[in-house]
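## tool: complex_structure
## caller: assistant
## args:
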Amino acid sequence: MKELLIILISSSIVNNVILSQFLGLCPFFGVSKKVETAAGMGGAVVFVITIASFVTGLLYNFILVPTGFEYLQTIVFILVIAALVQFVEMFLKKNVPSLYQALGVYLPLITTNCAVLGVALKNVSNGYNILQGVINGFATAVGFTIAIVIMAGIREKIEYNDIPTPFKGSAIVLVTAGLMAIAFFGFSGVI
Amino acid sequence: MNKNVERLYNGIIKENPTFVLMLGMCPTLAVTTSAINGLGMGLSTTVVLTLSNIIISALRNIIPDRVRMPAFIVVVASFVTIVQFLVQGFVPSLYSALGIYIPLIVVNCIILGRAESYASKNPVLPSLFDGLGMGLGFTMSLTVIGLVRELLGAGQMFGAQVLPIADASTGTIGYTPITIFILAPGAFFVLAILVAVMNVVRKNAEDKGKPLAAPSGCLAGDCSSCAAASHCSGHSVDKKGEAE
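## result:
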């Protein structure tokens, strides 16, 4: 139990997926203009990464390890994740229309593949079992949501500021991300 | 041969993937803590990019259009796996420094982008040089960014101490490293300054009537412009489903 709690806190806050691992930067810069859309994106990422960690965990432990094909993990994971995102979208559209309404627009934007694949590979390299892997995936995605929502809140305010011309656009967002990363260093003493 | 030289020039200077096109920012930020890491990551990517360009170009008339993205991914992922084991076997120190960023070369925008926009439409030899040029451009950029971060953050270049470190206890006069530059925030700051400088360069080039190639990565605020986005979001699979 204590171990799971440590994974939860370390993956969501201390080793934040964006601010210290640099995974999933694409949606972080692309979908962080408004708090509302950022939160929606965060929700979709939590959903997909949690499911993906579970499925890749099952595949790795029950198919790749027994057959001795561990070295195929990168190929298998990327294909499974691509198909999975598609499948989740179709499933939600048909069976849970209310959730699809809320998350549907963001699912095609899960270019976070970087983060999804990253979590799956991390689970393997850290030797997590399936439960630990799912917790790690969930926590990583929560960390993503925290970072993107804070960033969106700041960006809404930045709109009204007087920024030097060369820094307009993505440069000022990068500076903001850097300052956020410094702030998140404060958590490194937690664990 | 002229065309091949042109592809090399195009990749290294004219459409440099990092500085001009602003692609592949995940590895750019993550592994440039030192020049050596940047160089290692760049060369690994170059190998994958060149080999996958060759194979994809050779198979371009065989792969059906509908399943091209999954097919490209299998090719790229195979080479990434090979490179991963080679690095692990022959340069273990680099392997432990780069960690999961080596397998993550699979999702690097540059590789699928070149496969989609060049290798799948052109013969083998130009595709080889295209991959080589883009890869070397990427390597050069990562090494330069790594050099800057290493110099500011540790006073070193390729691991050698070039700036003597100040020591208050002995009264030695020297450089006090700005450690933050080799930590995560430094990556964001260096890239921010790079983007700002490129904005100025871009503006000047436009004023002179010689505009640079437009940035097309995530930093341009448009994920869909990245060729890999169509895969990442599963659109290729989606189109296949609709067509059937």
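## assistant note: Chain B has one domain: 3-231. The first strand of chain B starts at residue 156 and ends at 157. Handing back to user.
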